[in-house]
Amino acid sequence: MHVPELAWPTTAAQARAEQDRLRPLVRTTGSLPAPLRTVAGLDVAYGGDDRLAAAVVVLDADTLAPVDQATAVGVAAFDYVPGLFAFRELPALLAALAALSTVPDVLVCDGHGLAHPRRFGLACHLGVLLDRPTIGIAKTPLSGRYEPPDPRRGAGSALLADGEVVGRALRTRDGVKPVYVSVGHRLDLDAACALALRLTPRYRLPETTRRADRLCRDALAAAG
Length: 224
Prior knowledge:
The chain is 26% helix and 26% strand. It has helices at residues 12-22, 86-98, 122-130, 189-198, 207-222, and strands at 38-46, 51-60, 66-75, 106-109, 134-138, 156-161, 164-170, 179-185.
């Protein structure tokens, strides 16, 4: 998969300026590709001294069987600064994506898109850089408030920040706490939630995240 070569910011001011430059490029409309053939999950595991391993797992959209995967091991590319977390992980994630032999139809990040304090989380950043349909499915909310959705699978409630809908708390299992879905790029929120439900036939978290999480942890352990 082709990924762009980037000049990476070294200060928080530069990183915020880069977010400000790219944020207007986010597209919050679009439907799932038809036919939808492949979906990629992305995740990062951390070790000591800012070591990390990024993983991408590509699944068949119908069977959720893995069809491709890649990892990249390195160190965090940026200091930890609230609101700028994507800058730590993106170079390693892009390296893993570049190592794929397939081009996924949709990218699913273990994190947020618009549901971010600066309205430009990892899923937005990655989606804009690659111009690919991208969503974020997070385990915990980062920005905004919501009313608990109905306990049945498929129920959702708006995630609101400053009066704006930035995502949705979505119940993927009956009676289990929701996940937090937000648009990254080139898909609307309904499409993002439909995909989240398609990826969660058995568990709260999507199969994309579950498999990418396992792969990046294994890669980090193997690297010592």
